[in-house]
Amino acid sequence: DFENHGRTIAYGVVGALTGASLIAGFVSTEAWVPGINTDSAAFLYYAIDLLQSGTNPMAVTMEPALDRLQSSFFTERVDGSRVHSWSYPAGMLLAYLPQAALVGETGVGYRLTTLVALGGVGMTAVWSLPRRLAVTAPLVMLLVYNMFRSAAGGVTDAVWLLPLLIGMILWARGQWTAAGLALGVSCGIKQLPWAVLPFLLIWTLRTTDGWRAFARRAGRLNAAGFVGFALFTANIAFIAWRPTAWWSSVMTPLGAGGPM
């Protein structure tokens, strides 16, 4: 009876999948939970080490990190060269610092943070759906694209997807300040969510009565988004630390030797 118990079932499935992924990471050395399998994961490990030693990871090359890479999954530019610099906003680094400070790498490495965030994505998706449709959330996470396996393999998308999903849910419910804050956090972690902003602007224009109402709503969204992007994800600190290094890192996917 999905109408009465669908959400409970879905919560249980997401929780079980998250728990199983974490356990597999701690006890398995097989390919299902490989080592540092993406250059972004290798950069993350190296950047945390640099930051803990007082070095700005945005201001130095990440090339030494590639020695830890246990696969051939390099990110290349359109000109064929490989990316060997930090290429994210500061929030990507900040997301993993609590684990680094509290428990370190652990048996599963920094994927512990990614898998916990992915569990949060699943739980949030279940919460947002009608009870009879809630079971579709874990199905999508497994069948369309196995998000648990990708997170176990070093893909870090869950840490920005979680605030993006929360922001979109709050946006749809008209909670503009909270939505702007969550979206700002997501944009402060990775550049990919920036692509949704023009469409949200169009949505706001089409659903707001009058220019004054639009200006008020846009003002709240922009102010909250700035707080999320600049303060909650510490981008302002890295801008102050070395503005050119921050700009170069954030703009790496768009230029600086050829776009990715």
Quick take:
This protein has 260 residues and is mainly alpha-helical. The chain is 62% helix and 0% strand.
Distance between the termini: 47 Å
Rg over CA atoms: 19 Å
Largest sheet: number of strands, sense, barrel closure: none
Q: Total number of β-strand segments?
A: 0
Beta content comes to under 5%
Q: What is the H/E order?
A: HHHHHHHHHHHHH
Q: Structural class, please? A: mainly alpha
Mean pLDDT: 87
Low-confidence stretches: none
Shape: globular
| Secondary structure tally, helices | 13
* Oligomeric composition of the shown chains: single chain
What percentage of residues falls in helices of 4 or more residues? 55-70%
Walk me through the structure.
- The protein has helices spanning 2-27, 39-52, 90-94, 97-102, 111-128, 136-144, 147-152, 158-172, 176-187, 197-207, 211-232, 235-241, 243-251.
- The chain is globular, with a radius of gyration of 19 Å.
- The chain has 13 helices and no strands.
- α5 runs parallel beside α8 (158-172).
- The chain is mainly alpha-helical and 260 residues long.
